[in-house]
Amino acid sequence: MSIPAPRDPVRDWARSGVAYLTGRSAGPPLIPPGTAATVARALTDQIAEATAGGVRLDGAALLAERAAFTGHRRAGATSAGGACRLLPTADGWAAVSIARPDDPALYGALIECGELGDDPWPAVAGWLRDHTGDEFDERAELLGVAAGSVRPPRAAPASATDPAAHRSVAGMLVVDFSALWAGPLCAHVLGLAGARVVKVETPSRPDGARRGNPEFYHLLHAGHRSVMLDPTVADDRAALHALVSAAGIVIEASRPRALRGFGLDAEEFVAAGATWISITAHGRASNRIGFGDDVAASAGLVAHDAQGLMFVGDAIADPLTGLTAAALAMTAHTRDSGVLHDVSMEGTVAATLTGTHDVTAYPDHGGWLVDADDGAVAIAAPRARPVYGEAPKSGADTDDVLRDLGIPR
To answer: % helix / strand / coil in the chain, to the nearest 5?
Structure first.
């Protein structure tokens, strides 16, 4: 992504809400390393330009928006949402997510401990202290858990775009297979720009975000339509293929083999002219999975103090990736066929890790200030946009959507 050089990343971090979410619960907020808040603001500037001013968002504020709905606060080495922890290994640190119902059993297999009981954390932490990050990474990938060792920041170019080559997505059909935050944020931005968004879920893989904060879910999905299709049923499988064939943009956030199991192959639809946004934790070539907190930490986006490492923001890899994907979807391409954008959450974060900021927050009238290039600036709490309308219920209008699109079922 072609991003202007940051003018004052300290100010951008302070105003984003991310700094407010970074640090120990009983300590001051911290300014994170890198330029992710500045990059996010530049991305929404590109989106505003692509829409001739029709969609104006504050990308930096979007990085912390979920916490404004959930009330999440900074918690040091525990993620703001509570499901991920930074734990010492024999040679460094690892970010470990235990968020899904089957995760305790998977971690029991990973550490060869069998049943971990109601609290798996002590056993996992004890195992990590005696094993290296490389050994943990290998086992985590093999067992399909969202985790990874924390590595030094690595240079990683983001997906290239030409800000001058924007295109309108107004009226375009967007088929959204994604879940949680990154992909739905991309679809949300495209919907604001006038695209027609259809959310696709399957009976075995509904969007887990439906069980989260309802207002935040409504914010991302209001105005979209929803279908529930079962790829094991012949008519539904055919409808899936027809729906994707009619789309100008497809958003998916799973490993490539998942949709191939549905009979959907990205390259086939790209050859027919579609834009395919593939969001993965570590790139399409990797079998690793991840969520926003563990991916950002494993990419090297962490804060630190004398006690050790701390998370930056709330699952920051998700909104940063969602904005990147939306900007890519609004970029014109000159190929005869379509284009497949391989959007790695880890790579997206790593591309922002240029430089650290040696600044200290200080109290002021119950809040916190930090010195930026042009004077002191307040560290803002996360803030949210208003929620208008209701999000669709899962598959509630499947038949109507398919009928409106002329797709038989």
So the answer is: 35, 15, 50
Sorting pLDDT into bands at 50, 70 and 90, what band is 115?
confident
Q: 296 near 305, Cβ under 8 Å?
A: no
Beta bridge mates, 303: 310
Show the domain range for 88. Answer: 84-155
Locate tokens 């800000």: which residue? 163
Average pLDDT, the chain: 92
Query: Tokens 């930074």 identify what position?
Result: 86
In the chain, how long is the greatest CA-to-CA distance?
A: 64
What's the pLDDT tens digit per position in 62-93?
999 999 999 999 999 999 999 999 999 999 99
Instruction: Check which CATH number belongs to the domain holding 239 and give it.
Output: 3.40.50.10540
The answer to whether the CB of 225 falls within 8 A of the CB of 401 is yes
Say whether both 102 and 116 belong to one domain.
yes
Whether 94 and 149 have beta carbons less than 8 Å apart is answered as: yes
Closest CA to 269 of 187, 372, 173: 173
Which of 114, 134, 155 lies at the terminal end of a domain, its last residue?
Answer: 155
198 Cβ contact partners less than 8 Å away, ≥ 6 residues apart: 173, 174, 175, 176, 224, 225, 226, 227, 243, 401, 405
Q: CA 348, CA 107: separation in Å to the nearest integer?
A: 27
91-100 pLDDT per residue, tens: 999 999 999 9
Domain final residue, candidates 155, 182, 199: 155
CATH of residue 129's domain is 3.30.1540.10
Show the tokens assigned to 112.
Answer: 């060869």
Residue 189 lies in a domain: yes
